[in-house]
Design goal:
This is DUF1439 domain-containing protein. This protein is of the alpha+beta class and 196 residues long. The chain has one domain. A hairpin with a 4-residue loop joins strand 5 and strand 6. It is globular, with a radius of gyration of 20 Å.
Amino acid sequence: MADDNWRQRLAEGWQQLSARLPIPHRDGVSLPQTLLLSSLQKRLDPELARCEALTLDTEHLQLQLAVTQPIHARLFLSLRPASIDWPSRTLALDYRLQGMSTSPSRLRRAVSRSLLERLDSRIGRQLLGQLLKDLPWLRLEGERLIMALDRIDTLNRWLESPLFGKNLADRFALAELRTENGALRLVVRRLRDDEE
């Protein structure tokens, strides 16, 4: 009986741990939403915002953020992969921002609601820019978020790893980025000699 409890605890522990590990594939890797959520929660300034939830499906990635400054609100940021520029190591993501007021005061809720109704405008970009200021690898350019892969320390170490005398990033390229149910899927391809 004690042997079964030990096995069950080990299986449960492994299941919890493996949900936070990248899943390798023949042509790339999948990043589970629990891994992405915990990473985002660590990087956001808790005085400005808190990442409450992350949802990944076949259409998009959606973040639910609880914002406390400059207004009390719950923001929903939907991201969709747009394009990959491998030579500059960047990803472009289309985004859509929606929100609702969570202020305890009626007056503040009314003011917040009027601001939140215009989130797709300049106010939304300013608020998003303020939330992203501590993330040097993510920036706003017009209507898109640009992710600089070479500015993400853990990823850059992998990109610069040597493989037969060249960096790994000079041998392989990110070919596709897509969302799946519960994971972000990165597909890589080998660069031809004339592309290196």
